[in-house]
Design goal:
There is one protein chain. The protein has six helices and five strands. With about 150 residues, the protein is of the alpha+beta class. The chain has a five-stranded mixed β-sheet with strand order 1-2-3-4-5, with helices on both faces. α5 (about 100-115) links the parallel β4 (about 80-90) and β5 (about 120). It is globular and about 45 Å long.
Length: about 150
């Protein structure tokens, strides 16, 4: 797989991140690669929050993957801290070579270092390949998710 570095995302990484977010039927409808201003503002907010981790996977100077990890302290489960994995993307020409597994392993390890007792994620109901991927990594489809657009 070659050398891979997983590091915090920087402003210069935004075009590559947004391109990956937009590179599927769902993302193509909701992302705007031609207008990076909202993404830059979001990364600035996220970077200022110690419970937010937006990372990129870099190989040979090229961004090939990304994800966001959010740490959430809570009261339920006896005051457990949990993490949420979001926006997992692997560049189209890198899929199938283990990069997604490496990203998720990074997120799980980072969650353990933050004393999380649970790692959770959601995946759009239409992403059946992603569901199989997460199940292979030990995640269980245990809940039904709901969203309310505002």
């Amino acid at each position: 797989m070659g050398d891979l570095d997983i590091r915090p995302a920087h402003q210069n990484d935004i075009p590559a991140i947004v391109a990956m977010l937009a590179d599927d039927p769902l993302g193509a409808r909701r992302e705007s690669p031609d207008d990076l201003a909202p993404y830059l503002a979001a990364l600035e907010r996220l970077s200022a929050d110690p419970n937010q981790h937006v990372v990129v996977a870099v190989r040979e100077g090229r961004i090939v993957g990304t994800l966001q990890l959010t740490i959430i302290p809570g009261l339920s489960r006896r005051g457990a801290t949990r993490s949420v994995i979001e926006a997992v993307r692997v560049h189209a020409d890198e899929r199938g070579n283990g990069l997604g597994t490496r990203l998720i392993e990074w997120a799980v390890d980072a969650s353990r270092r933050q004393d999380c007792q649970l790692v959770q994620l959601t995946s759009d109901a239409s992403r059946t390949d992603a569901h199989r991927f997460y199940e292979r990594l030990g995640f269980e489809a245990s809940h039904v998710g709901f969203k309310l657009p505002l």
